[in-house]
Amino acid sequence: MQKMNLIIGIVLIVLAAVLLAVNWSANPVSLSVIWPVFPILIGILFLSFYFANKSQVGFLMPAIILLLTGLAFLVCTLTTWDNMRYLWPVFILAPGIGFFLNYAAGQKEGFQLTWGAVLTVVALVFLFVRSSLEVLWPILLLLIGLIFVFLHLGKAGKKEIPAGGSSEERLNSAPKEGRSEENS
């Protein structure tokens, strides 16, 4: 808990220093340009909560969403908002990466991996479509389709083993056809 207090304190001090610099015009950059730094800082704060206590996996998803969307907004404020026509898939990609990180951090639930893959693939497809690499996105769709076919074939090849005892015990205890019952 002391680590968390230190992290929160540092983030608040940095935030206060930035706001004071903007208010006193000590910094030539206005708040209208640097406002995306705030979601980025909150995302870093959430990541630090996770790294301070690895059992708090719930901080990963909002951390990644705030970091990536904050970075997209920062790029637009530093350049031009016309770039958002290329960067909007980041809003789909961020939760996809968040699902992957939740899965990697210990929440080994199937939906984490499934939705992480779906959102990431959709975002990458839209990034390809909106970029100059639009001729490559059909190849990406082909690869994704092949991955899903192989995933299905891999699951179809595995058979469920009933719980309770070893596989030899289950085979030996299974009734066999043609076996005659002995009279008592």
Quickly list its features:
184 residues; mainly alpha; 9 helices; 70% helix; flat
Condensed summary:
The chain is mainly α. The chain has two domains: 1-80; 88-157. Helix content is 70%, strand content 0%.
Radius of gyration, in angstroms, nearest whole number: 26 Å
Q: List how many beta strands DSSP finds.
A: 0
Number of helices: 9
Low-confidence stretches: none
What is the succession of H and E elements? Answer: HHHHHHHHH
Structural class: mainly alpha
Fraction of residues in helix? over 70%
Characterize the overall form: flat
Domains (count): 2
Q: Could you explain the architecture of this structure?
A:
The protein is mostly helical and 184 residues long. It folds into two domains: 1-80; 88-157. It has nine helices and no strands. The longest helix has 22 residues, at 2-23. The model has no long low-confidence stretch (mean pLDDT 74).
